[in-house]
Amino acid sequence: MKKNKKYLIIIICFTAMIALNGCSLKKDNGAFSFMKDTNVMKITIQSTRDQSYKFTVTDKDVINDIYKILLKAKKVEEKSTLSPDYIFEIYEGPENIHKFNYITGLDKAEGANFYDGNNNYIVSKRLDNDIIKNFWNIRKPLDFEKVYYNSILKGLDQYLDNEGKGLKVAVNLDKDLEMAKFVLSTDLLKFEKNLSKLNNVTLIGDKKEEEFDAVMSLKTEGYTSTKYKGIITFSGKAGSNDQIYYINDVYENGGWSISVTKEKPENF
Fold it and tell me: What is the secondary structure of 180-210 as a DSSP string?
């Protein structure tokens, strides 16, 4: 009897181990089986905010790495409401192209981050960390999120305290083509939350500029490891004068000094 119980315990333990191991393995979703056995000619990855920011993957090992990430993607019903950061085009052949939108940096609970017109998937952040970040030939500037967005907020603070007091202001970053390639939807979401703390300020999105009293735009003049320069312009309705602010940030003593002034700095 004791011997039978011993065998029964061993069988139960062994079965439990198999079940746990099975649960830990993500199931192949089957949706990207066309990529198996290196049937893909190439993959292009295009920034949605800068049409010149695009690279092409032809290396079979890299394509296989992307395939391994995608085959573990989880199919879901809902996609994220954020705008896509990149467009993936997977070339199974010259005339057979699979096109997907991709949003970087999303948490699993925030909806699908990789989708086409029919199917939505949650893809591991490895697609961003292992593939995109390793293959861009241009790297994001030092402390970009901190310097770029905080400079804009400082400019807005000054404008709202002076010429823009009481006005309804829109922020339009689409015209800053120099930095568009580094702007991501998840970063814009955080920035938008900070904008909500200001009175009557909105990230323009799909709204019309005519709905606002003034529109803020930004043109980056240069970004190095020690300096960031840009020009903020507040354009009012017809007949009003544009208001110009100058960004002249400097990295010194281990940190960034954010400076926004109405007066043009020397050697700007």
Answer: GGG--HHHHHHHHHHHTTSTTEEE-TTS-GG
